[in-house]
Every structure is written in C-alpha cells, then in structure tokens.
Amino acid sequence: KKWFAVIGDPIAHSKSPNMHNTWFDEMNIDAAYIPIHVKSEDLENAVASLKMLGASGWNVTIPHKQTIIPYLDELDPLAKKMGAVNTVLCLPDGSLKGYNTDGAGFVHSLEEVIGNDKKTLEVLLIGAGGAARGIAFALQQYGYHNLTVTNRTVEKAKEIVSELGEGRALSITETEHSLDKFGIVIQCTSAGLGNSEFRLPLSLEKLQEGAIAADIVYNPLMTPFLLEAQMKNAKIVNGLGMFVHQGAIAFRYWLEQYPNTNNMIKRLTDELN
Ligand code: ATR
C-alpha cells in the first residue's frame, strides 16, 4: 500500500487529505494520504522520517515551501525557478525530487474556464509574493507573454519581471489608470486575508468590460475582489480550481494518472457554500 502526506504548520484545516483520499477511492487505488503537523524546527527530522517510513511522496505547505529545498536531492526546473516546492516525489532509488504545482494548477484552472486560446491577452498580476511569482513563471511557461506585475512594494514587482526576462512592472496608481487594457486580472495578494477590514489591493474602477478576473483565494469562494469585479461585468474565476488542480498535478507526478477535477471542484464548492 502506498501512502502520502501533507506537511505544514498549521495543518488541521488542510483540505488535501480529503481530496486525495476521495480520488484514491474513486480510482480504486490502494493508498492513503494523511496530514502531519510539522513545526519549522522539526522539518529536517520530518523529511528523514517520511523517507524512512516509506512515504511515496508528500505535499508541502506553509511555512516549509522554501525551507524544504536543502533536504531534497533534485528539483524540477520550474520549482527551482520559483525557489519553492509544494510536492515531493520519492524516487525508486530513495532520492527525493521536488516540484511546484501551484502555478501550473492556477493555469489549468484558468484555462478550464476561459479556454487555452486567450494567451495573447494582456495579463495583470496583482501582488509580488511567493504565490504571484509561481503564477508568473507558470503563465510564461504556458505561453502567456504579455504580463504586467503590480504590487504595493513595486520593487518586488520589478524583481519578478527581471527574473522572467519579459513583461512590465507598474505601481498601483499607474495600474489603476491603465486598468482597461488588461483582459485578464489576477489577484495574488494576501491583503485582508483573515482580516475583517478588507481593502482591495487596487481600485477596479476602470476594469475592462468582459475582462477575466481571477483570485487565488478560495475561502471565501467569493472574495471582495471577485465581488467587485463581477459588479463590473467581469467573468470571474475563484481560487478553488487552483487548489484542486495543484493537487491533481501532484497526484499525476505520484501515480501517473490524472484524477477527476470537475467532480472535486463541485464537491468542494458545495462544502464551502
Ligand atoms: P504569498 O506567499 O501568499 O504570496 P507573501 O509572499 O507574503 O505571501 O506575499 C504577500 C503579497 O500580498 C505581497 O504582494 C504583498 O505586498 P508587499 O510585497 O507590498 O508586501 C501583498 N499584501 C499583503 N498585505 C497587503 C495589503 N494590506 N495591501 C496590499 N498588498 C498586500
């Protein structure tokens, strides 16, 4: 029997165990997936223990996505570029390979809603933290090359653009003035998460009619950003698809099969509503 895990701190509210165990059931795979609470100071021991106990792979969540890297033997090129790992695969020779499926999960989710024929649209990324970086690199890899990054701290947006080797960085104010040129607008900040005094990272006053507005947050499903965008007649994409697809891509690295994402999105949407 194969087994998998997710390690993080905190971990109790993770929806990953339920998601992967449901897929194992649906696909008659004899495997199990468990959450493991790992504090930062225990990370090295936890990795050694998972390996010793024969885990086939695991997911990595906050706060270990960057700090796990020194304990891995090999990194997928995208994970290396992002400097963050959310999926580990234990190879037959016992070595550990790190992947990052967050950014690709976002692109799969986006394309599930908008199709894959809109790669020439101007794309705006709001935010320049870890999540935004991952999405920027994945968008580039999937053929989206008209990328603008805006962030409260514009220097961080400039860093992403310089690492990408293409695209532009704009201040929040400059972006607000030119918002109508973007066909796809992606909210990647943690602004207001777990905070009742939510303020949008930027004004959507000039949002293009019919633009696509996506958020990486999925709890709540309808974020203040998406609500505002919907009022401006945008087509909205919530963050749940990203979560489900990052899991599905990890699942494929582990088991070489792609699970049913549509049913899972429906099921989790019902749970979150
Ligand atoms: P994550 O890994 O989720 O991306 P992060 O790396 O801490 O988290 O990045 C958080 C992002 O949210 C950053 O873009 C941050 O902007 P700064 O780089 O200027 O800090 C953005 N953010 C967080 N709180 C914000 C707020 N109150 N208003 C605007 N942007 C905010």
Can you characterise this structure?
By secondary structure, the protein is an alpha/beta fold. The protein folds into 2 domains: 2-100 and 241-272, Rossmann fold; 103-237, NAD(P)-binding Rossmann-like Domain (Rossmann fold, 3-Layer(aba) Sandwich), CATH 3.40.50. 38% of the residues lie in helices and 18% in strands. The protein has helices at 16-26, 43-52, 77-82, 102-114, 130-141, 154-164, 172-177, 224-231, 240-255, 261-272; strands at 2-8, 31-37, 57-60, 74-75, 87-90, 96-99, 123-126, 147-150, 168-170, 184-187, 212-215, 235-237. Strands 2-1-3-5-6-4 form a 6-stranded mixed beta sheet. A 6-stranded parallel beta sheet has the order 9-8-7-10-11-12, sandwiched between helices. Helix 6 links the parallel strand 8 and strand 9. Helix 9 packs across helix 10 (261-272). The longest helix has 16 residues, at 240-255. The protein is globular. The two termini are 35 Å apart. The model has no long low-confidence stretch (mean pLDDT 95). The structure holds 2'-monophosphoadenosine-5'-diphosphate. Residues 127-132, 151-153, 156, 189-191, 201 line the site of 2'-monophosphoadenosine-5'-diphosphate (ATR). 2'-monophosphoadenosine-5'-diphosphate binds next to helix 5.
Query: How many separate structural domains?
Result: 2
Query: Would you report the number of β strands?
Result: 12
Q: How would you write the strand order of the largest sheet?
A: 2-1-3-5-6-4
Largest sheet: 6 strands, mixed
- Give the CATH superfamily of the largest domain: NAD(P)-binding Rossmann-like Domain
The level 1 CATH classification of the largest domain is: Alpha Beta
Low-pLDDT segments: none
* Overall mean pLDDT: 95
Shape call: globular
Named CATH architecture of the largest domain: 3-Layer(aba) Sandwich
Termini gap: 35 Å
Q: Please trace the helix and strand order, writing H or E for each element.
A: EHEHEEHEEHEHEHEHEEHEHH
* Beta fraction: 15-25%
What is the helix tally?
Answer: 10
**Structural class determined from secondary elements:** alpha/beta
- Rg from Cα: 19 Å
The kinds of small molecule bound in this structure are: 2'-monophosphoadenosine-5'-diphosphate
